[in-house]
Amino acid sequence: MTCKYSFILFFTGFILNISAQETIKVTGQVSDGDNPIPFANILISNTSVGFSADGDGNFELELPDESVTLIVQAIGFKTLRETLIPSEYQNTPLNFTLKPDLLGLEEVVVSATRNRLSKKKAPVIVTVLSPKLFKATQSISLADGLHYQPGVRVETNCQNCGFTQVRLNGLGGQYTQVLLNSRPVFSALNGVYGLEQIPVSIIDRVEVVRSGGSALFGSSAIAGTINIITKEPVNNSWEVTSNLGLIDGTTPDRSLNLNASIVSEDLSTGVTLYGMYRNRDAYDANDDGFSEITKLTNNSLGAKAFYRPNDNSKLGFDFTAIKEYRRGGDRIELAPQFTDITEELDHNTLFTGVDYDLFTNDRTTHLTAYASVQHTDRDSYYGGLGGGRTRADSTAANNAFGKTTDLAFVSGVKFTRNFKNNDVLTSGFEYQLNDTEDAIPGYNRIVDQNVNSVGLYSQYEWKPIERFTALIGARLDHIDVDGFYQIQDINRTSDVTQTVLSPRLTLLYNFTEDLQFRGGYARGFRAPQAFNEDLHISSVGGEQRFVILSDDLESEFSNAYTASLNYSKEFNKIQTSLLVEGFYTTLENPFTLVSTGTSLPNGSILEESRNGSGAYVAGTNIEFNLSPSKALLFQAGITWQRSIYDEDQVLFEADGTSPSETDVVTDQFVRSPNAYGFFTTNWTVSDSFNVDLTGSYTGTMLAPHVISDTGFIKLEETTDFMDVTAKLTYHLDLDEHLHVEFSGGVQNIFDSYQQNFDLGALRDSDYIYGPNRPRSFFFGIRFGDF
Amino acid sequence: MKKILLFLFLTCGSLAAQDREQINWLSWEELDSALATKPKKTFVFFHADWCAYCKKIDRVVFTKPEVIKKINTDYYAVRMDTETTDTIRFDGRTFTNRQALTKRNGVHDLALLLGSRPEKSFSLPVTIFFDEQFGIKQRVFEYYTSWELLKILEQ
Lengths: 786, 155
Fold this sequence. Notes:
The complex is a heterodimer of chains A (786) and B (155).
Chain A: H1 7-11, E1 23-31, E2 41-44, E3 50-52, E4 58-64, E5 68-73, E6 80-84, E7 94-97, E8 108-109, E9 117-118, E10 126-129, H2 131-136, H3 142-145, E11 152-156, E12 164-168, E13 176-180, H4 190-193, E14 203-210, E15 224-230, E16 237-247, E17 251-263, E18 269-280, E19 295-310, E20 313-329, E21 342-359, E22 365-383, H5 391-398, E23 401-418, E24 424-440, E25 445-465, E26 468-487, E27 490-510, E28 515-526, E29 538-540, E30 543-549, E31 556-571, E32 574-588, E33 591-595, E34 605-611, E35 615-629, E36 632-652, E37 664-668, E38 675-686, E39 689-698, E40 702-706, E41 713-717, E42 721-735, E43 738-747, E44 776-785
Parallel strand pairs in A: 1-7, 13-15, 30-34
Antiparallel strand pairs in A: 1-4, 2-3, 2-5, 5-6, 8-9, 10-14, 11-12, 14-15, 16-17, 16-44, 17-18, 18-19, 19-20, 20-21, 21-22, 22-23, 23-24, 24-25, 25-26, 26-27, 27-28, 28-31, 29-30, 31-32, 32-35, 33-34, 35-36, 36-37, 36-38, 38-39, 39-42, 40-41, 42-43, 43-44
Chain B: H1 2-19, E1 25-26, H2 28-37, E2 41-47, H3 52-61, H4 65-74, E3 75-81, E4 88-90, E5 93-95, H5 109-115, E6 126-130, E7 136-140, H6 146-154
Parallel strand pairs in B: 1-3, 2-3
Antiparallel strand pairs in B: 2-6, 4-5, 6-7
Helix pairs in contact in B: 4-6
């Protein structure tokens, strides 16, 4: 009977391509140190010659009589390379010891070079946020989950409307490019509230690239890119998730997510449908009747479908509709014009996209074409009685209604060619249009901006030797801005036509398999135009605060340098990795908001976006990962940085009427702490029980605070914050096709929250910083076939 | 309300499950003795929890009545989770999962033996078709539809 199963012989010692030249026979074993590893592959570098070990890890190689580099691979183990002289092993066995790969270092990422690449081989550091982390931190929207990456901070900047900004390496939201499936569909307007509008249930992962190193994605990605990759299903699945949060133990935040995918048996067609409902009440931290966290209702609905006519091509479609209502201020139950302060925004947004992928039969050449449209219709109300009860106040309050339309279109073609020597050429063309019209007739405010840009990019990935990769690229942008901006009696225009070449260079050098160096340079620029913060209106002293572009605003340029060392090492079964990254970015003519005080005829504050003095941000990101076993994973990151203007920068321009008020100047960026960080701990107690403990730290920083009715600001030094979340999850398999998950926990356990909010109708609504919510409790149930 | 819904899902789910015909999966030990008594063609399917395509085959292909009928009539069928840490006795030899001693998602020795390819990493799904003498006729290293599977099974 035993000889009958001689099939085993077929697979032992598979030998391929034995070369005819003079060879030396070498024998040995592949092991992990203790046990042999069966069926490892042993390849001779730069040839097509390969061998495989047998079931007991033993092998016999026929090697040329000269120095060779062998590549030893086995699934689940790190690839080993060893250069040796075969004649030295004619009489001694050649043994290889492979190290297991626990931390998923071989994970595949997209962002770094716009192709799929193993994370370790990517010349640019890409950090990946998984849905697991969004769940661990009880994130309902993308904005909540982004903290847990080194160098990333998300902060609410307005008590009235909940405007959030993501800050990478200390630079404001306008320096970061947000991409949806690698495409820049986020317009200047979406940048204001968009991060809160994307439900996490559709996200497969988020890839964060700090600094401009990789940025074929666009010249405005000065601080980095955030690439939201949505799910691509294989199986039919569905799930329903419902969460209830209680902010400060009282204010409810409810959400319901639905998600279902159908994929045909031959995988040629498929669709994912998703929907979200969220309803959060307004939260008032200091009982003054004015909100610190806005009321929010969001209904989103979407679908993503694909069709593969054959194995080498794919056509995709996606649609998302978002209806979001947010309101903050006081007396939320009344119509806005009867309140002291109301900011009310009703967004109706539609994203539609189509993409087409085409591969050649040998998969060396890949062509992608895509087009996406985003349209937003927005009704706004930024106003109120402002604490007064005169006829004029009432008239003003009744005229604060506004209307905004925003259209963004992006279309492009990308071509990738993989050469035989592993070099890769990527080239592409991209056209973008963004047309924003924002009108509030009562304030005589108009933003009418049309931005057209054409980008042409090319990049070459050069691997002259095994240890070294260079990514050399450039992007040529031709941008055309036609903008008209008006507030009361002031009007400005922007009429810019500019062609800019932005070169990029990134290097990767592997000192050893464990230690890698990366270095990069990127140039970036932004043409003068209204970005997210410039489209936001807040309130102070019972009046509105507007932003307008200054006359003769010139383009802003940046030079970003990064260098990093990445070390990963296993100590027996414990796996660790350490990343130390230094960054240095200089800004020329940075767009800087300067307050001119209550200089508008109606007593409102006007801030001008001006070219500030040169500036730099410099710092260090440190990220540490430790996985002692499968059940335990610990990650922590911290950033130390300085954000400095070359010359003292004016942030408030005094008009001289009050002798105690002079120009406010600083050499430091406001809202940019010198130290911040995060940690995440995941403990799988058993198959059904999971504990997550996560936290983010925000160091002290300067926050501008309007303290008099002329709009005079004081730069306040904030306290530091430690926002810790604990979550327990219990998983139950009711059936192979039905799973249930119960979860609960506390966000911001230590109630580390801003204590010194302004009070009442005259408050400075932008004076909000630190964690996005006080201590909150949450409960969730998730069920479905997932 | 949720509880009621849940209950409904459960009852409907389990009622439906009872009616379903299934492939008669054997263990390796059962296959060993079955082959000794009555030689027959053998069908072996390797899968793992994380393998989405395996799940798809399981749910879509192995539930088709014509596939179930064909396999149950003409084949012995074995399915194996490549990450199992069970000790398997087959053909007079003992196989264990030695990779699992040192790493996550370790692949069982028996799966490596049958499912490895030279110059390629071990990937899933792996499906192997044996003839009556337990000689390998064909190995498939990717997803297939029920009509593609039936075509191979007919050979």
